[in-house]
Amino acid sequence: MIEIAEADCAHSTIVSVNNSLFCNGILKFGTEAQKQKYVRAIAEGKEIGAFALTEPQSGSDATAMRCKAARQADGSYVINGKKSWITSGPVAKYIILFAITDPAKGAKGITAFMVDTTKPGFHRGKTEPKLGIRASATCEIEFQDYVATADEVVGQEGEGFKIAMGVLDAGRIGIASQAVGLAKAAYKAAVAYVKERKSFGQPIGSFQMIQAKIADMKCRLDAAEILTLRAAWAKAQADLNGGRFSTEASVAKLTASEAAMYITHQALQIHGGMGYSKEMPLERYFRDAKITEIYEGTSEIQRLVIARNETGLR
Questions:
Q1: What's this model's pTM, rounded to 2 decimal places?
Q2: Residue 32 burial (CB < 10 Å; 0-12/13-18/19+)?
Q3: Which of 6, 55, 283, 296 is an active site residue?
Q4: Where do the domains of the chain lie, and which CATH numbers do they carry?
């Protein structure tokens, strides 16, 4: 993920959604038949997957969703509602969807479903005109009497919120990796530029204010990368031995995303007017970095997760 994001952040977004949000949830909670049908198609590169949790009125508060799945006598579910900001939504063949099956139970009344976007009742909205990661398509989706069969339920009825939160823990490591790769690209561009660009008869990298920027960028980049690798290690240990890695994932995601925003900002500043031009990639790095502080849990949510896990207070 780090290497892919260093080359193209939008492409790394598609990979992260496929691997972390889509495949990971099915591998952990799906049946063998679901793994063979959905994970294999994505892993072989034949199809694109997506993850549908956010709604127009519910972002950070995922339990406020209104998309409903009504169970029928034959065990199937009729789904109605909207989801927004669905990465890869315009092109996905399969989507893991979270909908309310029992409104009285709150978070424990949410269930996960596999959605085949070729079936009747599924509709895509317009592709969002985004600030950054523009090569990764995002849209709103809507369900109008969409029928999901019993074998399309992921896990058990009522386990959807638990599945979503577990998947997001892993997904945050993917976004941290994305942020690290993006920050690396901006940092390398800045270091190369300060050696080449001359002002007042000498490379601008010899000026102390530029040197201070390079030093600060390097410290934040290294911290972000090490914390991201620690989170990946913690996930691997949890996969082997059980347990959670939510704190490590949130620390990595928060640190790396804010480092990416800082480093791309400073890299653009170092390049001056040329950094503001679309002739160079700095302005794209800067635009792409912002979303890493927002999706798969905003920086504010990461701080809540970390503090609550550390203190045990809610």
A1: 0.94
A2: exposed
A3: 296
A4: 2-156 (2.40.110.10), 162-311 (1.20.140.10)
